[in-house]
Design goal:
Elements lengths: L3 E3 L3 H8 L7 E5 L2 H8 L2 H6 E7 L6 E4 L6 E5 L6 E4 L19 E7 L16 E7 L8 H4 L9 E7 L11 H6 L1 E7 L1 H5 L6 H7 L3 E3 L2
Parallel strand pairs: 1-2, 2-3, 3-5, 4-6, 5-7, 7-8, 8-9, 9-10, 10-11
Length: about 210
């Protein structure tokens, strides 16, 4: 079996473990215990390419480890405050910045307590980031974390922000603006006008690629 797509949780994961030939799993999980079950068997961890976590109740922290994931969606986890990356065996991942080396797309929707997205420094090939209705997030990546980021240059990157009134800083400095191919930033004009810039050069470099949400 080459591919599998489902919205079920623990019982379905137990059935997946029994399959011998599967290398492409697209799955939506709604129970925190199912995440732990997904990451435990090596077979499921290495085969999951699309992961959606949705409507978790009473959960303020999620730990992730799935190095083959290309698309990650987090939706309506209103009590979630933090996403953490599970440490892996150093011999398999000699570069600690590459836990999500295949991650291309991230979408976050409706969070009331999420503070930041520091874990994105572990996704060097990220090409699309959508942040919608994250009410208290102030920075995508905190300053001390962004200095250690290992995002690859030469990638076409698109960012969309909507309904994030406290997000005032973008994780780019003048050197990143020159090395990364930021294709487009999309957001509300009021949000863009309210952004804070430590370096006005960054603002001037990014303004031509900003588009207002229709």
């Amino acid at each position: 079996m080459k591919s599998f797509s489902s919205r079920y949780d623990v019982t379905m994961l137990e059935e997946l473990e029994q399959l011998e030939h599967i290398n492409d799993i697209s799955i939506t999980l709604t129970i925190i215990l199912s995440i732990q079950r997904l990451f435990e068997p090596h077979k499921l961890r290495r085969s999951t390419t699309s992961l959606q976590l949705e409507s978790f109740k009473g959960v303020n922290q999620v730990q992730l480890l799935s190095p083959r994931v290309e698309a990650l969606i987090l939706e309506r986890c209103e009590e979630l405050e933090e996403v953490k990356i599970i440490q892996v065996v150093p011999s398999k991942f000699p570069n600690p910045q590459c836990f999500f080396n295949h991650l291309l797309s991230v979408r976050l929707n409706t969070f009331k307590k999420l503070l930041n997205l520091n874990w994105l420094i572990y996704a060097p090939k990220l090409q699309s980031l959508r942040i919608v209705q994250c009410e208290i997030i102030e920075k995508i990546i905190e300053d001390e974390k962004s200095e250690g980021s290992d995002i690859e240059s030469g990638l076409n990157v698109r960012i969309l922000v909507r309904g994030c009134p406290r997000l005032k800083r973008l994780p780019f400095d003048s050197s990143i603006c020159m090395s990364k191919k930021l294709e487009k930033i999309i957001g509300q004009q009021e949000w863009w006008d309210g952004l804070e810039w430590e370096d006005q050069t960054v603002m001037h470099n990014l303004t031509p690629i900003f588009s207002t949400l229709s």
